[in-house]
Amino acid sequence: MAEIQGKTLRDVQVGESATVRRLSGEGALKRHIMDMGITKGVGVYVRKVAPLGDPIEVTVRGYELSLRKSEAECILVD
Amino acid sequence: MGICIALAGNPNCGKTTMFNDLTGANQYVGNWPGVTVEKKEGKYTRDKDVTITDLPGIYSLSPYSPEEIVARDYLLEGGPDAVINLVDATNLERNLYLTSQILNLGIPVVIALNMMDLVEKNGDKIDVDGLSRELGCPIVPTSALKGRGMEDVVKAAIDAARAEKAPASQMKFDAAVEEALVKIEGVLGDKVSPNAARWYAIKLFEAEDKTIADLKLSQADLDAISAIRTSIEDKLDDDAESIITAERYDAISHVMGKTVKRTRTGLTTSQKIDRVVTNRWLGLPIFIVIMFFVYWLAVSVGGGVVTDWANDGISGDGWLYTGNAAFDEATEEYEDAHSQVVTYVENILGEDEESELPSDASQEVLDALAAEEPEAPEDDADADAVAEYEDAMAEYEEAQAIVADFDEQAQASHAVATMEVEDEDGNVEEQSITFADYQKALEVEEPDPSDGTWGLWIPGLGAIIADAMEAADVAPWLQSLVNDGIVSGVGAVIGFIPQMVILFLLLGILELCGYMSRVAFIMDRIFRKFGLSGKSFIPMLIASGCGVPAVMSTKTIENEMDRRMTIMTTTMIPCGAKMPIIALVFGALASGDSSATWYVAPMFYFLGVIAIILSGIMLKKTKLFAGEATPFVMELPEYHMPTVKSILLSMWERVKGYIIKAGTIIFLSTIVIWFLMNFGDAGEGFGLLDPDAPDYMEHSLMAGLGNLLAWIFAPLGFDNWQATATAVTGLVAKENVVATVGIITQLADYGEADPQLWFGFLQMLGGSTAAVVAFCAFNLLCAPCFAAMGTIRQQQNSPKWFWITIGYLCGFAWCVGTMLYQFVGLATGEVEFNVFTVVAIVIAAAMLFQIFRPMPKREEKQEK
């Protein structure tokens, strides 16, 4: 959990995919992100950015999920 | 013996539709995560011994959100005999995540594999029997939308409940984790039921506080479990919670690999729609067009035409059903003629320089012209009636004499008045009015829509009731109570129903088809800065029409804090009923010179918007709304065509709530306000006041109350009972503000667009511009009408939050009013520097501090 550096989901360009390495942070937010299917090893496709630049829409486990860029920062990817 | 079946599943998987189908209950269905916040119960229509409980839609059984806690507590402690787990087959992977947790609970489970028809249409194949073997429980394919497979599911659940057979899932985790779970089960021993042992073992492995607290294990047991957990955490280099979540999803992927065949490639329909609808460039324009359309239909068409119709029909005199065009033309003709008369009289007898109103002499003639010949009493023997008739006749003859005098004077003067007339193309022409024109204009009679010459006239409910009571010789106080109190109060509320029906039909469609989540996605960026949600936009847009549906539409905001904040601030937007107040103030400030003060009306809209933004920023930093920023990790559900039935149900559910309230809270409050306004002591002992007597309001209880409360408004520049009473009556309906000003200034026959009333209103407030502005600001921002307050009470669903909302609105309105009066007054020289100026400066400083200070760091709400 000490790992703060590294590429996060926020850094992934629209139209690209990434594999989740781990989640930083803790508590309800982290658990909620995991419950929604973003767990270690899953592939995430960044589909688009909202018209005003935030939040983003990703496809994970076959459905569409929206999350803010600040929340995408908690998701470390390869 | 009765059987209890719980209905569990993800949000948006068709659960509520299924519940409605099974129980026949009219329950609200929404294509929105978290619509069902409380669990709801119903009896199975085919077997009344079976109770079905609809749990809130959840993604997981982790105890973090209120919905999850409700569902979890019911499953663990509510003792259901079986669980029907509704699974969206088009989104199997994530749906099975919840299933994998429910299977651990040790309760018999039946899976309803919903939307199977869509899966087949997409060309995918699910091996239902194989999946059933892997999960260790029966699976029934269903279509909740089409009502298919419902009976089979319930039958399977009843069988499972009777057999008391716990699911035997084949889903296994990583060997090391399985080993750890077995060890923990060993530590637990017989402290928990054997069927649920795996559930508790997993929860203890995750070190979940709630489970640890509930089980009350000994310290030695906890230490042993802790050691097992640490060794696995070290081995897999992750925390226990992440390990379990990942293991569950991995197990699901494994099961799906064996049982699901996908043939679909490329974009889904929803993805194709979203390529346009939430497009980086097209998203906002499309959103604006859709919102404009909703607003136009609900507020302009619904609020204008339909609500006017309902208001006229219920509480008004009545409604002209046909022949409107001819009637409007006649009305216009009459108005032209009337202004010719006024101009001509003013030309001869002068007008008041300051107010641009007719001078006293002119007014006398105009009043005399309006006098009508009284009707002779039917019964000559009735001495009272005869005396009354004789008095009226004398008055009428006096008026005739005045008119005759004026005519003589006018004819002798050969005066020709000029009047500016605008023709159809907007060109202004001068029209001269001679004595002959004046006489001709007098001949034009005001058209009466109810006299049968214009078309089909349907008298209003109010008029019918009034006539009926008159005929039945009902006591005058009761007539007054029913007509002025109940019919006009409750009628105003019921008048909104057509508008609400249109609005909620539209919102229902947007919500059920899945667009509402996209609204949040598009608007989130703007609104989260003020502590609001992207979905707050819709209530605020609607609030410009009416606060009641606006507050009701906050129901689509699933986050509690966002919802409460939106409810607190949304009525600050001036609603349709506040328009006459703005028009009145506009008139009083501008004295009819609209070109110089055109900015007054838009200014009050900006005031509303700015008040919301500032309130959001300030409230967010208070203890009430403290806590982590609301997460926005949200599913964007697939679009689908809603059924007509579900749209109608969602509309009816909301409109019903509103109607019930109109019948209770609002009914009572209108009676109280009526009592305050019509009872008092006019020197003949306490009793009903005569509304025909001049200044009757002065003796009413309302005046007394106004006097008692007037000191509160001293800093705002209107510390008299009149202004206070006006604000109080505004609580019934904001339309009453102008009506009360009319009654108090005895200009009740004049509308808010009439200079007479502007002038009277200005005088009521001591002729101060600053006080007029402060009065308007206070009435626009303070607690809304009873109808809206009732809705707030219902939506906040907590007395504490209701009073916080009302208190905040009134307090904020008072602060803004004080600042406006003091600062505007100082600037215009109407106010001397006084102690309240200091108060206003302190308020301004406090607000600025709260707005600009950084977000206070607060202790974590839930210390571990």
UniProtKB/TrEMBL annotation, chain A:
<dbReference type="InterPro" id="IPR007167">
    <property type="entry name" value="Fe-transptr_FeoA-like"/>
</dbReference>
<feature type="domain" description="Ferrous iron transporter FeoA-like">
    <location>
        <begin position="7"/>
        <end position="78"/>
    </location>
</feature>
<dbReference type="Pfam" id="PF04023">
    <property type="entry name" value="FeoA"/>
</dbReference>
<dbReference type="InterPro" id="IPR052713">
    <property type="entry name" value="FeoA"/>
</dbReference>
<protein>
    <submittedName>
        <fullName>Ferrous iron transport protein A</fullName>
    </submittedName>
</protein>
<dbReference type="InterPro" id="IPR008988">
    <property type="entry name" value="Transcriptional_repressor_C"/>
</dbReference>
<dbReference type="InterPro" id="IPR038157">
    <property type="entry name" value="FeoA_core_dom"/>
</dbReference>
<keyword id="KW-0408">Iron</keyword>
<dbReference type="GO" id="GO:0046914">
    <property type="term" value="F:transition metal ion binding"/>
</dbReference>
